[in-house]
Amino acid sequence: MKIITLILLAACSAGASDIRNVNGSVTDLSPIHAWKEIHQGERPLKAWKDVQVLQLSGTVSVYTRCTIKVEGRTKDVLLDHLPPDISRFLNDKERLEIQIKQLEVYIADETKRLRIVEAESGPEIHRRGSQFKMDHARLDNKRDDLSAMRNELSEMKKNAAAATTDLAVIMNKTYFNLEIWDFGLKR
Question: How far apart are CA 168 and CA 71, in angstroms?
Fold first, then answer.
């Protein structure tokens, strides 16, 4: 049985290599990926953990300060060689959240303004107020935009775990009392 498992691991690793360089030490992570497919035997390369990056918090020296989730625990750490896809996903998500908040404020303010215009003008505004109608149409369009943005954010949140998780190794050193984790340079 062990021979079959090793053959499967070797076959899987031959097809999709994931080679990382950490401090000059090159490691092939494909055995971990193969093990995840079949979950037989002991997990190889136990030092490499699935690390989900939850939030980016700027840079400290050459590292990226982040909040991560590893083995069910959340903590603030420093990351080295943060994969660009993870960084891009989190930045896009944050940008979308900011745009949604700004649009919500705009819609609330514009709704109040249009109510005041309508109250001051009375029923006459509905008969002759083409600018009022245009402003209402713009507001409706902004509401549609907000709905689309919320849907996009909802989809991003559904995919966040997969999009922000990768294998990393703890470096057994700290900087400013924060653990340092390294995703390694991908080859």
Answer: 12
Closest by CA position to 77, among listed 4, 183, 154: 183
Residues of the chain with pLDDT under 50: 1-14
**pTM, rounded to two decimals:** 0.83
Percentage helix, strand, coil for the chain under 3-state DSSP, each rounded to 5 = 55, 30, 15
Reported as a single tens digit per residue, the pLDDT across 17-50 is: 899 999 999 999 999 999 999 988 999 999 999 9
Q: What Å distances lie between residue 173 and 77, 129, 159, 168, 179, CA to CA?
A: 11, 68, 31, 14, 6
Which candidate, 185, 186, 176, places its Cα nearest to that of 77? 176
Helical axes 2-15 vs 30-38, angle rounded to 10°: 120
> What are the structural domain ranges in the chain?
1-46, 88-160
